[in-house]
Amino acid sequence: MDYLKKIYKSLSAVFLAALTIIIPTSCDEHEAIDNGIHIGHILCNDHSTMTVDQYLSQDKLKAVAVIFAEASDEHPTLAVMVQDNPQLAFCDSIGMSLGCSSDKNAFDGFQNTSNMQNAYDEKTQKGSPLANYVFRSHEYGQSDYIPSVAEIQRLVVATPTVNKILERIGGQPISTSGKGGWYWTSTTVEANPQAQAWLCSMSTGRIIETPQDESHSSRGIVALN
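Request: output the structure for the sequence above.
Response:
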C-alpha cells in the first residue's frame, strides 16, 4: 500500500506540474479583442465606427467624422466632421442674446448651438448664420454642432493625428495656420456675451475675444452617446 501511495503522489506532482506549464501557454495564445472606439476611428453615415483600414477596405459607407476624444467622466466620445463649414458670422446682430454659456471649462457645445439656433428672430430675420447653417447641414441624421472652448481645445491636441486620417480618407484637414487656422467656438466672452465670442487657434489652443459679426472658419463636432 505504501508503494502505491508513493506512486500516486508522484503522478499527482507530475500532473500539477503539467498544468502549471500548459495553462499559461494556452492563455498567451488568445489575446483580448479590443472593441472600443478610439482616436482616429471613423464615424460612418450609418452611425457605425471602424478603423481607417477597415474603412478603406470597403466602398459602401461614407465617412462623416473622425474620433478625436474618447469618452471620459467629462464628456462622451467626440468626433470631428470631415469638412469645414463656410466662413460665417457667429451672430449678424451685435447686442443680440443667443443664450450661449461663457464657461470655458464646460463641454456644452451642443446646448450652445441649440440655443443659437432657437434665438433666431423671424420678425427681424436676425440670429446666428453659423448655427443656422449647422442646423441645415446635418448629414444622415448626425447632429453636429459648434464646439465649446473646452471641446475645441481637446480637438487641438488631437489635430495632428486627425489631419493624417482626414488626408487618408479624402477629407479636409483642419487648418492650423493663417487667419483660416482660427476657428469659432460656441462659447461667448463672459464680460461681453452679446458682442463677443471666443476664437481658438487650431495650432496652439490659444483663444481670443472676437466680435460676433465677423466671419471665420468653424468645424462641427458630433457626440457619440
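The mean pLDDT is 88.
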